[in-house]
Amino acid sequence: MTQHIRSRRVLRRAGLVVVAVLAVVGLVAAYQFFFGAPGVGHFRSADGRDSYVAAYERAMSTLPTPSEVHDVPTRFGTVRVYEWTSPRTADSVPVVLVPGRASGVPMWGENLPGFLPEHRVLAFDALGDAGLSVQAAPLTSTDDQALWIDDVLSGLGVETAHVVGHSFGGASAASYAKQFPEKVRSLTLLEPVFTFGYPPARMLFWASVSTLPGLPTSWRDTALAKVGGVDDYDSDDAMAAMISEGSQHFSAALPTPSPLSDDELRALAIPTYVAIAERDSLVGGEKAAARARQLADAEVLVFPDTTHSLPMQAKDRLNSELPEFWRGSEQD
């Protein structure tokens, strides 16, 4: 009994040490995340890139086979784009998918089956983030994010599109819609961070920790689980393994977005679908939903029993509702 109590005390002290260390490294990461000078995203080593690419290819193998793969030059670097099209969808308004942080194209694996039957789909890895896009110049603001997205779509001959973004991709999608409203047929924002408000401090902490190089795998998995809003982070899952490899081996260089002002929200008159998680939202939950309702033409929904991993957790509902939303926006 005495030995058991002593063991528990040792474990408790060890736990406190872990928390203390994470607090320190989290503060360092947060400082670099928000105040570091603009740079160019890159892999920390050739071996690290090889390890990431192997995990990336494994995750991509779970998706429907793309019709085409493009490497599109932009003013900030070359963007890897995957296209799914068929004779039936070739002339449709394309759906453009902007991924969340460290997620790349593979994050859409659960949603593509619902999107492909009616639309040409274009999905890309974000510049400055883990993936197969290659950044060549610093991104100094969210406006720059919108510029390279426009370069990609112009390079592919896309005149108008249904733009969908998750997490940081939601902030980039909103910025693109703000700068190029004439090119956006509809806007879909899934747990869009830094769009209607700032994420909770605890989530910023865990997001910062998850990107630290040299972090023990178990600690990184804990941080990623906290960000994703899941109890356990299954590092054997293809998608989870890819995110873990990217967090470990890629040094991202992304500008921190600023929430849209009230005037900017009211001026965005594009048909918009907003989905916010009920639990552990990085967006701000009901408070963010209230701000989102200032949009001129928006359907704002809080999804029950979901977290920041909403696109995967609510795939059946999204795969049903979004094609219907897109059809409606094309009739406006």
From TrEMBL:
Q: Which SUPFAM superfamilies match?
A: alpha/beta-Hydrolases
Alphabetical keyword list: Hydrolase
CC annotations in GO: membrane
A GO molecular function held by the record? hydrolase activity
Task: Output this protein's name.
Answer: Alpha/beta hydrolase
Q: Which residues form the signal peptide?
A: none
Every AB hydrolase-1 domain range: 95-318
Domain of life per record: Bacteria
- Provide the coiled-coil residue spans: none
